[in-house]
Amino acid sequence: MTVSKTLKQIIDSKTTHDVVIGQLGLGSIATLKQLITQVAQHKEKRITLKVVADINDTSRTRLADEELAKLLCTNESVYLTAITGCQRVIIASVGLTIDFYLGHYLNQLQSLPMVSDGFVDGWHIASDADQTQLTQTLFWQLAKLSTNEAQLSLDDELTAELQQRLYVQAEQVGLYRYDADDDAKASHNALRCDDICFQERAALRAQSRAVQAPYPICAAPLTTTDNAVSVNQGIAIIGGGVGSACLALSLAERAQRVTLFCEDHALAQAASGNKQGAIYPLLTPDNNTLSQYFQQAYLFSLQRLKSLAAQGHPIGFDLCGVVHTGHDERSRKRVAKIINGHDWDPNIAQAINAEQASNIAGVKLDDGGIFYPQGGWVSPQDFTRAAFTQAQAISDASLKLNTQITDIRFKDGSWYLDSNTETFGPFKALIVANGKSITQFSQTQYLQATGFRGQVSHVPSRAKLSKLSAVLCAHGYMTPSNNSLHCLGASYVKNAVDTHYSSSEQVENLHKIQHSYVGQDWVEEIDVSGHSARVGVRMVTRDHAPMMGPAPDLDSIMALYQDHQLTPESRVYWQKHNAPVHQGLYVLGGLGSRGLSSGPLAAEALAAQICGELMPISRDFVALLNPNRMWMRKLLKGKALEMIGES
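Structure (tokenized):
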């Protein structure tokens, strides 16, 4: 029985809009084609396939298959990368979302954050599933993630003996067998009705929720009942950058009504307004949680970018690769430590010598370093406009420009937004995603992010400069020519008082490139005398991770802190109790200088959380991105908190 047949059975039986199928093993490309055809016939439903597959030589080959890459994105190839964790691919043409969870089956399933009591409508075990991992413990994890009516199907190519064993294991956790005869169904139903199975599932879910308690996952009450009429009050987003636009798109894909408030005359006028922005992952030598998040986020950004381009949106970009080198002894050691500290997948990062770096870049370089083969540059403005335009095309997404929100208020279970002239609302959910102004409201004023001014210089392309064919990253960065201009920079000034052009920062940007590539003749052609530049402010967190999740209620946290601090008992309290948050209020910000790489996945994860879906990130990533993490990390260790307002 193929997964497409399984899907048809579930679609026919499901009365709700969302359908989720889980699969163990990659399966075949032919089966995936059948699935896409099946989904295309049911565009009224939103369908998600969650594929759990191990990383081995066979899976690496299949993930890199050209046919699969083209199947995942029409007109633009989207390649999967054999790294541990989730890679989400959205096939926009048919409305199918595929999450590829790569790694040990049990580890991947246990790392999933719990959102609802059960969300998977059925499981399929493909013929290429690793049989040694199909244990009873794994089946309990399948059951934990499943609805009470979830069923199991097996690939026909599995041996009869194995099928029998797997069906027995499924019965023991209360999973229904798709192709069972009536007698078998009756017997199985008796088992499924056994309270023990469902009590075990509930216990496993409770354990997962207890682990994630310090960083609660909060769906928004998007629908309210007024005089027996169901009313969708919609979702408000404050902000007009790439993160806000990608969030609007992710919500629109979930058929949500969205209103985006932007204080400027057009989208992407602040930090997202640069002509070219580099897109590549932030890696660490030990490949820590931050490094892992950036890899998955970077891959999702590439998928988002290619998908929007394939849908006909005009976006300036070139995934020409990024060459990362040092500029002095210390930075060279750091670059070497990164590339040698972990066995990176070659689609993520490759070690290169000076000759290879020169050949890739198209200009002479004296240092080797790291090559990010899938990276490059993109116009943030184009990316932002494309994302929001697509949101408008598929759902009720409206844009209010020249609208500066001065205050936000929670009243009678809904959010209201005030400008100088008007009040907007009610909204059942509100996301503060307005970049440098993210701390302007009383509910968000203590979020731990700092503004850094950045001036990006524009220089005309000349004969030797025009040969630059990859993004260069060293002390500063420099892009290949686009419309006869290169971008280089950027300055990095903490808490700058204005965003006016700075002649000193213009020269500073030139010196960074001269310092990075000493004595190269092509550097001599860089001319900043035209005073062409652009200034923006990016919000940076202490740990360089974005902020994504429910807005922490700091007043309530500090009130609780008076009773639960600096004792072993206090640590237990904070470990076991959900941290207080503002109902229906969320934060998306702190994207720093790598927002193109980190922002779209954070937006997608937040949209999933708001809508009560499983996020395409692990429980560790939920904690990493939580806007409350700085305070909770101290509380969980029994350390003292600074009082609100202290730096």
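The two ends are 61 Å apart (CA to CA). The chain has three domains: 3-211, 223-268+382-448+543-636, 322-373+449-541.
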